[in-house]
Amino acid sequence: MPTVTPRAPAPRRPYRAARPRTANRAASFVLNASVLAALLAASSAPTPLYPRYQDAWHLSALTITVVFSAYALALLLALLTTGALSDHLGRRPVLVGALAVEAASMVLLASADGAGALTAARVLQGAATGAAASAAGAALLDLENPRRPGRSALTNSIAPAAGMAAGVLASTLFIRFVPAPTVTVYVVLAVLFAAQAVAVMFTTETARPHPGALSSLRPELAVPPSAHRALLAAGTGVVAVWALGGFYSSLGPALVRLVAPGAPQAAGGMVFFTLTAAATLTGWILRRTAPYAAATGGSLAVVPAAALTLSGLHGAGLPAVYGGAALAGIAFGAVSQGALRMTLASLDAQDRAATLAAYYVLSYLSMSLPAIAAGAATQHYGLRAAAHAYAIAAALLAVAALAALTASRGRTVHHAHNDLP
Q1: Measured distance CA(175)–CA(172) in Å, rounded
Q2: What's the N-to-C CA distance of the chain in angstroms?
Q3: Rounded to 5, what percent of the chain is helix, strand, coil?
Q4: Closest CA to 142 of 343, 342, 347
Q5: Which of these, 37, 65, 38, lies nearest to 50 by C-alpha position?
Q6: Whole-angstrom Cα distance, residue 28 to residue 334?
Q7: Alpha-carbon distances of 248 from 22, 159, 171, 325, 370, rounded to whole Å
Q8: Which of 15, 157, 407, 416 is at 20 to 30 A from 118, Cα to Cα?
Q9: For all residues of the chain together, what is the average pLDDT?
Q10: How confident is the model at residue 417 (pLDDT cuts 50, 70, 90)?
């Protein structure tokens, strides 16, 4: 069974990331950021298409959440097994292989003709994304510019949200203006991933390959003590905001249909775009805010976000649903940015990919398992009841996150006070 444990310091040989030339470093940084964004764009692209799949194949809400969560659970398995692989083999070979598999999964999505084929394609996509995301994120940390400290952690927090926003927006525009959107959107993404795989081949390797690749495939997430403390402090907030993201990503279109049956089909996908766009903007605005303050403020925003979303089911209509999504996006951006900066602070180079994998495992478990539960609840009790239960649970998690962050901050201040001469 996978475990998440603090890794005790142990003697090991000096590890230094390779340092590409300045021009190549800048190009490689942009390329790896684009890979991370494209991976998450592909993950969210199906969201506006779910109503089409439901109508064409007569799928239930539970089936849609299973399709959505199959991707996330496959991604988790990949993170558990390949999360640290690029620390041993190098970033470049892991990225090239994963991007090739990602392109193949897009081809399968384009040719899917039913829920089974759609689920299988999403499983393959999740596996490829899990392998690529930790490698690309670690490469961004390797490419940190000493003159711009913190840029890599900021990019790791903003690129996923920006990618999800771009994926939803592109898919929505394809539905409106392009023939056969359930095919063309994936063909475009397949070409993009193939081009990125070729581009990665020409970048300089930023990691120093070393033995232990096979043993790193054992499903265990071991993180250094500093990252472990940060994950414990911010983890509940991460669970709350990613759970909200999972709800809007999988059941957002159905919620829009329930609140406003006559709304255009694009309105269903755009509600998740609202969340991810707000998350991206918030992450950028708060880039110089102290991590604890960002995570605390984001956790505070979860409660009104849940309340506003529920008010849409009690007469406030579609504006309240969109307002709740925007507030949820603010919470998502603030907590994700604060938690990642706390977690990635002062990491040794050999711990980067594994620590990012631990963060993504927590995030995607939080996104997928509650979404499956919401789909099952919708099947048995209806979407209205499921939305109420989901919003209340997210609000309670946010309150627990505030307590954990406050306690952690208090311990930090206490230790700092005791360390004064």
Answers
A1: 5
A2: 45
A3: 80, 0, 20
A4: 347
A5: 65
A6: 27
A7: 41, 19, 16, 8, 11
A8: 157
A9: 83
A10: very low
